[in-house]
Structures are given as structure tokens and as C-alpha cells.
Amino acid sequence: MNLIKIALGLGLFLSSAMIAGLLALGGWSLTWGATDYAPAWTAKIIDTIAGSLIIWGILDLKKKKKSGAFRR
After folding, report:
1. Which of 9, 27, 57, 60 has its CA 20 to 30 A from that of 51?
2. pLDDT over 70 percentage in the chain
3. pLDDT for res 66
């Protein structure tokens, strides 16, 4: 388990709506038919990235280190 990836993923997941709101206040917009879809779209993208970080933090596939006895 990689605790840094898990913590970063949880932090992004919990703050994704706030980040999307701040981007919308900063001028990020994606409008269609007088409806702004940017906050919802951005939050979903950030949630997807956060979920990936959490999953890869839990799985954390690493190669095993060889012991010193087998080195030359």
C-alpha cells in the first residue's frame, strides 16, 4: 500500500467540488443552451483521477528487491 497516493486521492475526492467551483469563479465555463456544465464535468474528471489514485495506492505493484546474497 502506498499511503501517499491514497491520501492524495482522498484529498482530491473530498475537495473536487470546491476545486470545480473555484475554477468556475475563475472563468472556466462550458455552456450549452444557457447551462454551465463546467463545474459538474470538472468534478467528475477530478473524481475519476482521485479514484484511480486510491486504487493504485492500494494495489501498489512493486518489484521485489533481490537479497544481497545473490548479487555479484
Report:
1. 27
2. 86
3. 64
Side chain identity at residue 7, one-letter code: A
Closest CA to 29 of 21, 17, 37, 19: 37
Give every CB contact of residue 36 below 8 A, 6+ residues apart in sequence: 24, 29, 30
Distance CA 58, CA 6 (A): 7
Say which residues have a Cβ less than 8 Å from residue 60's Cβ, sequence separation at least 6: 1, 2, 5
Q: How many CB atoms lie within 10 A of CB 41?
A: 13
Q: Average pLDDT, whole number, for the chain? A: 86
Is there a contact between 46 and 20 (Cβ–Cβ < 8 Å)? yes
All cell numbers assigned to 57 = 495506492
Give the pLDDT confidence score for residue 9 in this predicted structure: 94
Residue 43 and residue 58 in contact, taking contact as beta carbons nearer than 8 Å = no
